Amino acid sequence: MGGRRNWVGVGGAWAVIVERMRESVPGPVMGDAFGGVLRACHEVGARTGAVFQIIERDDGHIAASDAAVYFAPVEDWPELERHACEEITGRVLDVGCGAGRHASVLIAAGAGVIGLDSSPGAVAVAQARGVDARLGSASAIPVGIDAMDTVVLFGNGIGLLGSPQQAPVVLAELARVAAPGARLLGSGLDPSVTTNPIHLAYHDHNRQRGRMPGQLRLRVRHERLASEWFDYLLPSEAELTDLVRNSPWRLDEMRHDDHGGYLAVMHLR
Ligand SMILES: C[S@@+](CC[C@H](N)C(=O)[O-])C[C@H]1O[C@@H](n2cnc3c(N)ncnc32)[C@H](O)[C@@H]1O
Hints:
Blueprint: H1 2-23, E1 29-30, H2 33-43, E2 52-57, E3 62-66, H3 79-87, E4 91-95, H4 101-108, E5 112-117, H5 120-128, E6 132-135, E7 148-153, H6 166-176, E8 178-189, H7 197-208, E9 215-222, E10 225-226, E11 230-233, H8 237-245, E12 249-256, E13 261-268
Parallel strand pairs: 1-10, 4-5, 4-7, 5-6, 7-8
Antiparallel strand pairs: 2-3, 2-9, 8-13, 9-10, 9-11, 12-13
Helix pairs in contact: 1-5, 2-5
């Protein structure tokens, strides 16, 4: 029943966005652009090459990527996440679950999974794909979620730590809904591996304005929709260690790939 109510609520929110688009004057319409991307991709059967996610950074850099990656089967995932999923036990909270690609594989393997996402469109698509997905933020987790044995932040979900100000709030909130001895598994990207001069200049610009080098200020675009600007964090291992040090989590292990990607393994203290 709770899932059905969520679904109706999410559908209502989408109708409001469409109505606002009809009424508005030219220019981007503020709304759930990432949800729009996932809905469009879901509608075409998650075919590759059909729907693209456009990400705009506050230095003007634009990146487009195939949205089908958010529906990718397990064999196409980064090896670190594939192996991590094989180790997962107990009740799982998939934070920033998106279209539910990790959640659906974990459910098929017998895990009890709750997905959490701040995008109504993502929640709607994940629910349509059989995931118990709930609408909410990692920094204010809704009631009804507690005693989770494993918390996952996959698909570079460490980025949801956002900033030095937001990270302690998110880490404390995830701890609040975790069971004693819980594990947190998060994938991330070390920004220092890039050799792209545009990204290196952006990291310098961030340092000069008192931000972490990999503290990206982004918004998502889809057709006429633009999301609000948000911070998405790419911390190095040393920076992540600092962010976690005084949190309820203990960073026990960092597993690395050859491209700057990593999987952070934490335990609730
Ligand atoms: C890069 S996508 C990854 C999606 C999914 N984990 C995957 O790998 O396919 C990040 C997801 O986090 C969600 N998100 C962003 N900020 C969030 C927040 N504060 N709380 C919960 N979810 C959030 C976005 O809507 C999006 O679905």
